[in-house]
Amino acid sequence: MKPRTLTILAITIxxxxxxxxxxxxxxxxxxxxxxxxxxxATMPGELATTEYIAAAGDTPAYDPAMAPVxxxxxxxxxxxxxxxxxxxxxxxxxxxxxxxxxDHGFSSVSASHTFANRNLFNRGIHHRVxxxxxxxxxxxxxxxxxxxxxxxxxxxxxxxxxxxxxxxxSFKRGGLEGAAARFYNGAAHRVAQDFNLTLDxxxxxxGFFGHATWGLxxxxxxxxxxxxxxxxxxxxIFMVNNFAADLELSAxxxxxxxxWGGGVEGIDAYRVKAALVPYALSGAFxxxxxxxxxxxxxxxxxxxxxxxxxxxxxxxxxxxSQFTFGVDMGWKF
Length: 333
What we know:
Order of helices and strands: HEEEEEEEEEHEEEEEEHE
Radius of gyration: 33 Å
CATH superfamily: monomeric porin ompg
Shape: globular
Number of helices: 3
Strand content: over 45%
CATH class: Mainly Beta
Oligomer: single chain
Helix content: 10-25%
Largest sheet: 12 strands, antiparallel, barrel
């Protein structure tokens, strides 16, 4: 071997040997206690660092910054009660009923309760019950003779953040569906029952909301219907002293396929709606509080199905254009 090669090996081998892993000790190993001291960042935007100092016999110091953070509980209310104090017209998915059938307007109270167990079958599935009781202020009309009564049950799951998929059942008695079932479809009662599938979206941070519903009737009215709506919530459109308000603008369309009778296929109605949501900055009522009040206005105009429904019904129950105003008040807990 050349002298130059021996010289290189003589220099390299000690260096490599110094970087080899230490020998694993034989026998019991003694561990020292460790104390945790948090050092605060000294520059803006710099992350705080943590020093670990071994000191035999020291007790680890408690640092709140090192404590685990408990997951935040959901603020979603379990129960919502909504009182439609008054609506100047009675409508079904935006389809306005003529004034001679609902001459003095409409009021209703509805409630929805989601059961506390929102993890059925360990699949994140929730279920809820709901109901509506409504009154059409015209006792002389076929619609006003019987109060509107509806019961709902649904199971669902949040499939994406802010997006829920629900499958439900509805029992409806009275109202336009009840009258159509009895007088226009020849049933011996004013009852309509259906299954429905709904996608519901509500992003409170970005302001977008909407839903898409498909219903399939199996008693009274046996066709299918759809209801699609999309909207945007403008926050803090004005602020005066301790009060502010949000503005919700939305648009919807309601098609149906044979739901109101044979051959009635197309668009029932279109609608645009504006709702004001006032709230107190102190949290007494409004956006994030239990109590809310919501005045609104809605413009509805009929689609291609209006004339077909008129032909089936004979007395023309559908108004081709309606401007409706109303006030809702609710409590959620």
